[in-house]
Amino acid sequence: MKTLSRQTALARRSFLQLGAAGIAAAALPLHAAADAADADAAIREIFGDKPLNEGRVSVKLPPIAENGNSVAITVAAESLMSPDDYVRRIAIISPRNPIAEVAVFKLGPRAGKAEISTRIRMAGTQRIRAVAEMSDGTLWHGSASTVVTLAACLIG
């Protein structure tokens, strides 16, 4: 009889653990959805409600960033950079940061090349988005992800 009640207790415990794991897994997409909503809100604040087109913008990040305080990023947009076809602005959006708008760079045809390189601060592993506004008013975007790890050595 004791064996039966022990099996029942194990089954109940397994059921509760499975339920807790399911609840935790269900919460993960909500966090990702919140990040995407924050990024979309930041883009609307900068550029208004213009439609976003995918492509023409490339984002380069290291696959792993050991220190989130300074992560190298390069953003390039395809453009002739002529008086008739140039990039007006490039915005970098980091949805997991307290303020999603990291930077907005203003360019013009005399820039010669629609590419910026800088270092940004990242609150954790995430997908960084970049949006370029062209001289004709269209918006193009690209994105890249990086894994931000903790420092290997801590001095305490």
Quick description:
With 156 residues, this protein is an alpha+beta fold.
Q: Helices and strands in order, then pairings?
A:
Blueprint lengths: L1 H46 L4 E3 L2 E4 L3 E2 L5 E7 L9 E7 L7 E6 L8 E6 L5 E9 L4 E10 L8
Parallel strand pairs: 1-9, 3-9
Antiparallel strand pairs: 2-4, 4-7, 5-6, 5-8, 8-9
Describe the protein's architecture and organization.
By secondary structure, the chain is α+β, with helices and mostly antiparallel strands. Helices cover 29% and strands 35% of the residues. The longest helix has 46 residues, at 2-47. The chain is elongated and about 80 Å long.
Main features:
six-stranded mixed beta sheet, 9 strands, elongated
Low-confidence stretches: 20-33, 151-156
User: What series of H and E elements makes up the topology?
Assistant: HEEEEEEEEE
Percent in helix: 25-40%
What's the number of helices?
1
Mean pLDDT: 82
Shape label: elongated
Please report the total strand number as a whole number. Answer: 9
Assign the structural class, choosing from mainly alpha, mainly beta, alpha/beta, alpha+beta, or little secondary structure: alpha+beta
The share of residues in extended strands comes to: 25-35%
The main pleated sheet reads as: 6 strands, mixed
Radius of gyration: 22 Å
N- to C-terminal separation? 55 Å
